[in-house]
Amino acid sequence: MVIASNTQVALRYPEGIREADAQKLHTIMDAAHQMKQLTDHLLILARSDEDLSHLCEVVHLNTMLPKLIDDYQEQAQNLSIHLVLRMEDALDTLGLESELRRVFANLIDNAFAFTSAGGEISIAATHNDRQLQISVSDTGIGMSEETQARIFDRFWRADTSRSYRSGGAGLGLAIVEAIVRNHGGSVGVVSRLGVGSRFDVRLPSA
């Protein structure tokens, strides 16, 4: 944060900076933001095994998911990707809303990374016996069986040369798995190369 803030202050006065030096400062700023994101992700994983039951509350997915989708609509329009949400009523679970929001944000980010213009990303939330099932599907490039077997490993990244918008340190899906497990649920993936992928999150119903 100190590096980023000082660099930002320096860039406010471009008249006193050579063009080549300004470019170096932008590079420093980008690196600082990447380091902060990596640190944040590591802290999330470090506390993922903590007992957070005393902080749990009823999370209304019927309220949370539409708000989350709204946040992505502009990005979807800019990338010419159709973003769809389908929900049943009374989708409640126990947990931390901020953590569960991060789960679905990470899954949507992942879908955007591997879906080209003209594709579709859909989120379907339903009741399944005594569980809730929230599926994030895309019409992207899909993945091989070998990739599916390692997709939730920490620091493991798929072949980013095949993605449309790559980035990150390979922790996004590991965070998804850790948070969902800590909420008494499970997450799995079904995918076919050239067809797309579907991530299924199952959470206990409240």
Average pLDDT reading? 86
Based on CA atoms alone, the radius of gyration comes out at 19 Å
Main beta-sheet strand count, sense and barrel state: 5 strands, mixed
Task: Give the domain tally.
Answer: 2
N-to-C order of helices and strands: HHEHEEHEEHHEE
Q: Which CATH class of the largest domain? A: Alpha Beta
Strand order of the largest sheet: 2-4-5-7-6
Specify the CATH homologous superfamily of the largest domain.
Answer: Histidine kinase-like ATPase, C-terminal domain
Strand-residue proportion: 15-25%
pLDDT < 50 runs, ≥5 residues: none
Primary descriptors:
single chain; 206 residues; alpha+beta; Heat Shock Protein 90; 2 domains; five-stranded mixed β-sheet; two-stranded antiparallel ribbon
Structure commentary:
With 206 residues, the chain is α+β, with helices and mostly antiparallel strands. It folds into two domains: 2-46; 53-204, Histidine kinase-like ATPase, C-terminal domain (Heat Shock Protein 90, 2-Layer Sandwich). Helices cover 44% and strands 23% of the residues. A hairpin with a 2-residue loop joins β4 and β5. α3 packs parallel to α4. The termini are far apart.
